[in-house]
Structure formats: C-alpha cells, structure tokens
Amino acid sequence: MPELPEVEVVRAGLAPAVTGATVVGVSVLDDRALTRHPGGAAQFEAALTGRAIRSAARRGKFLWLPLEPPAGGVPSEAVVGHLGMSGQLLLRAPGAAPERHERVRIDLSHPHHGEVSVVFADQRTFGSLALDTLEPTPDGAAGGFGTDEASVPRQVAHIARDPLDPAFPDAAFRRTLAGKASAIKRVLLDQTVLSGVGNIYADESLWAARIHPETPARELPTRAVNRLLAEVRHVLEKALAEGGTSFDAQYVNVNGQAGYFAHSLNAYGRTGEPCPRCGRPIMRVSFTNRSSHFCPHCQRMPRSPR
Prior knowledge:
The chain has 306 residues and is of the alpha+beta class. It folds into two domains: 4-156, Alpha-Beta Barrel (N-terminal domain of MutM-like DNA repair proteins), CATH 3.20.190; 170-294, Helicase, Ruva Protein, domain 3 (Orthogonal Bundle). Helices cover 22% and strands 22% of the residues. The protein has helices at 4-18, 41-48, 170-178, 184-188, 199-209, 222-241, and strands at 22-28, 57-59, 62-67, 77-82, 87-92, 102-110, 114-122, 128-136, 151-153, 283-287, 290-294. The strands form three sheets. A five-stranded antiparallel beta sheet has the order 2-3-4-8-9. The chain has a four-stranded antiparallel beta sheet with strand order 1-6-7-5. 43% of the residues are buried.
C-alpha cells in the first residue's frame, strides 16, 4: 500500500496542474471507486462539475482537493482521495486513451496550463474518491501539506498528523507511547497516533533506531523515542527524495514513473540478506497480516525488568 512518501509524490505532482483549475467534466466509469462518497455517481459528477480547485493537500495517506464553494455559500468541500492498495492518480492530455483499470476521469481547464485530465485508475478497487465537507482543525494549524487552510475533510479528521507535518506534536507523541503496552511497531502503524507510516517505513525506521519491533512502547526511554522519531523523519524524507518505493507497476507518480527507494532499503524485504550494519542475516517474522523485517543482533529485545 502506498505510504506517506508515495502519496506526497503524487500530491506534489498534481498541485501545479490542479491549483486554480476548474472542473469542466467528470466521468465515473466504475461506481466502486466511490465507496466513500455518500451519493451516487450521477450526484458526484453533477456536484463536482463547474467547481474550482484551490489546492492539493495531504495528511498521511489521504489526499484532498479543496474546492471553491458554489454560489450560495455552501460549506467548503473537497474531493478526497485514498489510493488503497493499487490506486493511481495520473495526469493525462485531454482526450487521451483510457488507462487500464481507469475508474474516474476528471477534466480540468487551467487559466495558465490549459486543459488536462486527472485519471483515477485502480486495479484492485480498494482505493476511492469522494466529495466531503471540510471542518476546522482542532489545533488551528493547517490541515496538511499543500494547504494553508486550517481545515480537513471529515473523513480524514480522525487521522493523526504525520511526522513531517510542521504541526506534529512531538511531546504528545512521547506521552502517548509512554502509556502504550503494545509493541512499538504496532503503535507506529496506528494512524490515529501518527499517520503515513506503513509496514515498509516502520521496519526501516526501527532498524535505523536499533529498536526491536516487539518492544513495548512504554518501555522505550525518552532518548530512544526521540531517536526513533528522528529516524522516522529521516527515512520518510529520504524516500520522498527518491520518489517513493516501487516494487511493481502499481505505484507510480502522476506521470507514470516509478520511485527507486527500494534500492535503499536496509531491512524490509531483505530476509536472509546480510544486515548492512553488522553483516548478520535479516530476519522475517509474521506480524498480524503482514511481516516484520529486522536484525536480531542490532535490534535486540530489551530484557524484562526483574
């Protein structure tokens, strides 16, 4: 599933093309792409057509396009997108041939860049688009990356800020971990604690911080928590600079290009290969419905206090 770096690459690619553009047409080819939308396909098409887009924003793994309100002063709304397992948002020339697995096409007219189409394609149909109401952020800070507006879609309001967000509450994060008996990896994957981190970047961050994934979060000293948070940010920033992680053709940017952070992975997906730090084999163990990858020598489980 695309994580923060992959979704941010998509957001940054969309922003210049959609900011200030007006929706001139919407074609829903598959209703399954609107599972999070409260109305049907016809209502989605009608409600979106003619609206102007203010920006392209992101929090964690969610994207949204804030819209100018229509005449009449209706509460602000946004098109919310979640890529799911295999969703793609692609920029295409007007009238371009349909993409494989294309579900929705949004035709735009931009005052400076001309006409362009945003195509939502999704092989496994777990991703979705929806029109949702924006609500104020509780802390008064911008809702996410790419917007200065202190608002967030209702469907995204329960998602915590991500570690790269300037408004991410470091002190609150430390307090949350201090009260969690759960394994630290499970906490890192909890999108209500911090968002955007999935299996790949959790494994990479824990390896970099030399922390065993099954360590109870509350047993981590403050120094270790600070080190972990710093490594999470470093890993995400490096992945973002390298265009994200692509293991197959399902994750691509808006131009259909793959990221190359997979070549920089130290733990994830390297079962049996030598640890880049100590040379011992990387181990893979089952973790809920996925796997954890770590070095049993560098990331030792702390001894239980007697």
